[in-house]
Design goal:
mainly alpha; 12 helices; 76% helix; single chain; 0% strand
Length: 256
């Protein structure tokens, strides 16, 4: 199966890392715009209960269309979960300086948390939920410890990897990181089964089944060609996260 896939990929379709990063960044901006502008500012979902929203949609066709559009955008946002988990693991496996990589991701999480809270709730600190980048930082710490136990015997290594994954899930749930559970599970699968490409894609897909459109991302991942050349500076993707949230928050407040 792997040989057939690789043969098709070589002849017909090759997906480099930069395409995956561009796609993930585009989906991220779209998902944030959906929440900050459409759901929070236009629909004002926080002012409705489920029952009152259903009643309002029965009498307002425009509201129904907006809620439907928000639902479609939410579904599309799920495409980013496997992409970010895969890119994080690829970065972890191929970085020449883990400490520098961790600092970049952690710094983006810290700065991005303020931007995320401000964009989503209008507050600089909101502990009701945390940004997805904090979840990525948790995943990176989990992967670091997993690599430290790889020299153990097979049974010990597998048990420790499962325990570390459960630990990552615990912190993702405790901190209420957005997409945290799926991100931790998917990153763990991508890393632990990296030498079994077909198996890891199938299991990672299972971890993302709560997002209906996530399987579409695995089509691109199946044809990833391993090339990591980037035409865009890598730092731009780190800057984009807090920057796009600040811009969205400013747009909403200027419009209001």
């Amino acid at each position: 199966m792997d040989k057939i896939r690789e043969k098709i990929a070589r002849r017909f379709l090759k997906v480099p890392e930069q395409w995956l990063k561009y796609a993930a960044a585009l989906i991220m901006v779209m998902a944030s715009a959906n929440t900050v502008i459409l759901k929070n500012a236009v629909i004002r979902l926080d002012t409705y209960t489920q029952e009152s929203l259903m009643a309002a949609m029965d009498t307002d066709s425009r509201l129904m269309a907006r809620v439907g559009l928000a639902g479609v955008m939410d579904a599309l946002a799920g495409l980013a979960v496997p992409l970010f988990a895969f890119l994080l693991v690829e970065g972890f496996l191929h970085t020449s300086d883990f400490r520098r990589y961790l600092i970049r991701v952690a710094a983006t999480a810290v700065v991005g948390e303020f931007a995320y809270d401000f964009a989503m709730s209008g507050q600089l600190l909101d502990f009701s939920r945390q940004s997805p980048v904090l979840g990525l930082t948790l995943c990176l710490g989990m992967l670091f410890v997993m690599r430290r136990v790889e020299n153990r015997e097979t049974v010990d290594r597998v048990v420790l990897q499962i325990l570390l994954t459960l630990c990552g899930l615990f912190w993702a749930l405790l901190l209420r990181t957005e997409y945290g559970v799926a991100m931790v599970l998917t990153a763990a699968v991508f890393y632990c089964l990296r030498s079994h490409r077909a198996v890891r894609l199938i299991l990672a897909l299972v971890c993302c089944l709560q997002y209906p459109l996530a399987p579409m991302s695995f089509i691109a991942l199946a044809f990833y060609n391993g090339k990591r050349e980037m035409k865009c500076p890598g730092i731009a993707f780190y800057i984009l996260y807090p920057l796009h949230l600040i811009i969205l928050a400013a747009v909403v407040r200027c419009a209001l």
